[in-house]
Amino acid sequence: MTNTIVVVGAGVSGLTSALLLSKNKANTVTVVAKHMPGDYDIEYASPFAGANIVPMATKENARWESRSWPVFKRLTEEVPEAGIHFQKCHIQRRDDDLRNTANATFPDSTFDPNPWYKDLFDDFREHEPSELTPGYDSGCQYTAVCINTAIYLPWLLGQCLKSGVVVKRAILTDIRDAKQLSHTGNAANIIVNATGLGSLKLGGVLDTTMAPARGQVVLVRNESTPMLICSGTPDGRGEETYLMQRAAGGGTILGGTYDIGNWESQPDPNIATRIMQRVVAARPDIAGGKGVAGLSVVRHAVGLRPWRKAGLRLEEERLDDETWIVHNYGHSGWGYQGSYGCAEGVVELVDKVTNVAKSKL
Where is the FAD dependent oxidoreductase domain (predicted)? Predict the structure, then answer.
């Protein structure tokens, strides 16, 4: 049985799903999206990501990230044109943040003193007191990767095209519209919904549990390693300290914020100042000892992470007698690092609903 598949959304989740689906030659895959790699729009989250590998899932939901890590590791080793490089990652914890979990910004296991992901990385270890960032009480480190999204997203699109995926722009008001948008001219029997935050207002989905988790960052030319991810800041809930140097001359991302429910698309200059001050205080070397004045700013940016109250939605739903929808959205801040694992899940659900259809023939 041939599957006519339309993937709605060309962010990292949609393109990775399309790529893995296209590996099965029984599938014809079309990607339809309003925004494409190369675009910068507040509706399109993927270009604004750091992006790196910092596990956020609980141990029970670790599959998506743990399955993605070997793929990114292989790409870093074997495919330099994908724009990924290895980088040490330092996780820093404050005891107060661990005690007051109700005030935590990230609802994840990143700062667990005994994290499940310690077995994922070969060189994971806890920090000695002398290695800690001032103001933090404990920490750990491991070798992860940082992704230059400006290179990786076009590369990922190119891999889709190489694998036979057809890509076109369109604006959908209802998920049902996708059924008639396959490049084959045939009605789609599988629709993959990878619209991220768009699932809030997309007809036929209208997931009211979706909300933006606003992320404001500063991109600078200065270089600094290792990556730094901190559990909290003196500036309170919603403001974070993180730093990651992108591959291939992509600059260094300074962050940031995680402000759920905030739709503001323009950078706040006061927040930007606090971000730079926090990073320079933690890493004076990044600015050559000159303070914030030593930072060479490329741009200030805001992205809206696709936050969902209940977390990831990766499940099938029947649209009509001939058509299934497979949902893959609600990744919040871990879209890249879970992209291959979740795409594997999409493939499994497509196989599942296809077998259901076969059994009825």
Answer: 5-349
